[in-house]
Design goal:
The chain is mostly helical. Helix 7 packs parallel to helix 15, helix 8 packs across helix 9 and helix 8 (about 175-220) runs antiparallel to helix 12. The protein has helices at about 1-20, 25-50, 60-75, 75-100, 110-120, 130-140, 145-170, 175-220, 220-235, 240-250, 255-265, 275-295, 300, 305-330, 335-365. Among the domains are: about 1-140, Ferritin (Up-down Bundle); about 145-175 and about 280-365, no CATH class. The chain contains 15 helices and no strands.
């Protein structure tokens, strides 16, 4: 565990350095360099605790190098999102472990998450616009997007692999297997796309309705809303007299007052509502389709047992790669995770193949 923590800090220092090197805004780049230096300090502390000399420290792991490659290809906003997700996950794990062992929480468990926020707050050159841009970047992309890509491909591969094997078990006819595989690919991808569109659209409509209600309340009962704003400030530790003055000031601009109430009272980030439901649907469609195409492609160019063997081999390789990719987030052993994913996928396909074979024999008899 000690070596794992050490490697995590080494990777974080490396990735923050990469963020700094590829950040065009010099002020934000300087913040990332400070973060890299802080993580470097953590590396030295962990190395001392683990009795590891600094000249024997390992370099960044393959996971960190992979995320850096993703940053180069798709943009370093993804890397920032992954770092923030990792920091939150580590803090949550520490809190959960302490609670499980009935240990007292000292308040330092989540300090790692707020380091970047504190630096941003204390650097006077960081403007409100830069802060807003940073918030938008690390919330809108990152670990969740990459994780969704991996899981979307996995859903397509596992479901269509099982379908293709079930049809192949029932009938060796190449055209029947190919037709079923393509139908499964299209139906599954459309279902995923529609589900994602509905999810995003319904969330947007729900939040937009809540925001409109808040605006109506602001216009019909400004005094009541002003009291709410004052209470919000007081809850943040601002003295009552000062909070009331601040509430009076912000109520002079309905737009600012509305933004504050939406964020603080409703907990809604207006920037997140700007995401396109169509883009989300297309993203889900293509991710599912890519995974689902793997077991089908061999039947386009071969037939019989040859196509079946190539389909199984290609799908097994795809399952292993997906299992390996998942370790980017879990930190588990690559070979173990990849082999486990491949085993479960092959078992599912074998079961559907067996059921298909029994049905085929029964129908033929």
């Amino acid at each position: 565990m000690k070596n794992k923590n050490l490697q995590t800090e080494i990777d974080a220092s490396y990735l923050y350095h990469q963020l700094a090197e590829h950040e065009q805004d010099p002020i934000v780049a300087n913040v990332f360099r400070q973060m890299s230096e802080i993580e470097g300090g953590h590396v030295k502390a962990f190395a001392t605790k683990a009795n590891v000399s600094l000249d024997q420290l390992p370099g960044p792991s393959w996971r960190a190098k992979t995320f850096n490659l993703i940053g180069k290809v798709f943009g370093y906003d993804y890397v920032l999102g992954v770092l923030m997700d990792t920091e939150k996950a580590l803090s949550n794990a520490i809190v959960a472990t302490k609670q499980k062992n009935k240990q007292a929480l000292t308040g330092t468990e989540t300090a790692h998450v707020s380091i970047l926020r504190n630096i941003l707050d204390k650097v006077p050159e960081v403007s409100g616009a830069q802060m807003a841009r940073f918030e938008k970047r690390h919330r809108s992309v990152g670990g969740n997007a990459i994780r969704a890509a991996v899981l979307g491909g996995n859903d397509g591969l596992v479901s269509n692999f099982s379908l293709v094997m079930g049809i192949a078990g029932a009938s060796p006819d190449q055209s029947g297997v190919l037709l079923a595989g393509l139908a499964g690919l299209l139906a599954g991808a459309l279902s995923m796309a529609l589900g994602e569109w509905i999810s995003v659209k319904s969330s947007q409509e729900l939040y937009e309705n809540q925001m409109q209600l808040e605006m109506d309340e602001l216009e019909t009962n400004p005094e009541g809303e002003k009291k709410e704003i004052a209470l919000i400030y007081m809850a943040k530790g601002i003295p009552e007299d000062q909070a009331r003055v601040m509430a009076d000031d912000i109520m002079k601009d309905n737009k600012q007052a509305h933004e504050l109430l939406v964020k603080e009272e409703l907990g809604i980030n207006a920037e997140e509502l700007k995401g396109s439901a169509i883009e989300a649907a297309l993203f889900s469609f293509f991710l599912f389709a890519i995974g689902a195409s793997i077991p089908v492609l061999p039947f386009m160019f071969a037939s019989g047992m040859k196509a079946l063997v190539i389909s199984v081999a290609g799908s097994a390789l795809g399952l292993f790669l997906i299992g390996s990719a998942i370790t980017l987030f879990t930190g588990r052993n690559v070979w173990f995770s990849g082999a486990r994913q491949m085993l479960f996928g092959l078992i599912a396909a074998a079961i559907t193949f067996g059921i298909g074979h029994l049905i085929g024999v029964s129908v033929a008899g």
